[in-house]
């Protein structure tokens, strides 16, 4: 098969009716009017134009490549966020480099530096994070998305996790529950710390007599499943559970089924995230809805703004949450109490 003849950026510009600098801005993710960008992209696609990335990196300060760090690819929460980030980057002509926890922090840092990424979005950073801090210290712009770190030198965006915990506490107390357990997320994760703090504070305000039991679920299905089965097998099992994310709540529902505990007749279960599966008819999980896509979109926009103005003040945005009532919670009843 004959090889398609190469086309230069000068020819692309001439056919699109723009300056060569405009083609360059489109390729590098610069600011271009939407109609002009669309016209240039159509011509690029027509000729299957592939720029010489190595040559571009020698003459430009930016590579048009953004790293996105995600730790748990099995959690349906994170692909939603990655897709939202990628959509924003794609609109600006930028590319995404995805890193998971398969590589060590040292290997990931080496890859990010080797690929000369323009910036990095972290979706699951922890306090003293072994990758986020070194990336920032190497001068690479970082945005923390969904989780935050106090004092971190980067832009941050998160949901209102403290309010999420308070909303769940109010709901369970309003239903009459007084034997309550909390399945906690990963230690050193801001989401777990904030949701737990909001939940505890609201219980203390409204029902200080409640003896709250806490178990570690680590945002992991298997860990949470085992912990909840142990809780339910105890002489005085809880009548309600607050799980720090939906994956752990799904584990709790299956643990209850394995122990012969009816949900919501004998046990009310509340999650946090509102992942798509939580609305499925066989699950119908009561949960706190986070604006997952919006959080990720804001993170991507914050990074783009940081690249345009590196010296601007740091941003920290907190987005609202809402309680979504479904079929896994019900009023406490003395008739079903054990």
From TrEMBL:
Could you tell me what this protein is called? Alanine racemase
What is the enzyme's class at the highest EC level?
Answer: isomerase
Which molecular-function annotations from GO does this UniProt entry contain? alanine racemase activity; DNA-binding transcription factor activity; transcription cis-regulatory region binding
Tell me the domain of life.
Answer: Bacteria
Outline the extent of the HTH lacI-type domain.
7-60
| EC number, as in UniProt | 5.1.1.1
Instruction: Cite the Gene3D superfamilies for this sequence.
Output: 3.40.50.2300, lambda repressor-like DNA-binding domains (1.10.260.40)
What keywords would UniProt list here? DNA-binding, Isomerase, Transcription, Transcription regulation
